[in-house]
Amino acid sequence: MRHGKYPFVIGFLAAPVTIYVVFVIAPYAQAFYMALTNWRGLSPGQFIGLENFTRLFQDDVFWKALQHHGILLLALPLVTIIIALFLAFMLNVGGGSKQGIMTGVWGSKFYRVVFFLPQVLAVAILGVLFQSVYRPDGSGMINSLVTKIGLEPIGFLINPDLALWSIIAVLVWQAVGFYVVLFSAGMSNIPKDIYEAAMLDGATRMSMFFRVTLPLLWDTLQVAWVYLGIAAFDAFAIVQTLTVDQGGPDGSTTVIGMEIYRNAFTYSKYGYASAMGVALFFLTITFAALSLRVSRRESVEM
Question: Where does the record place the ABC transmembrane type-1 domain (predicted)?
Answer without folding.
Answer: 66-291
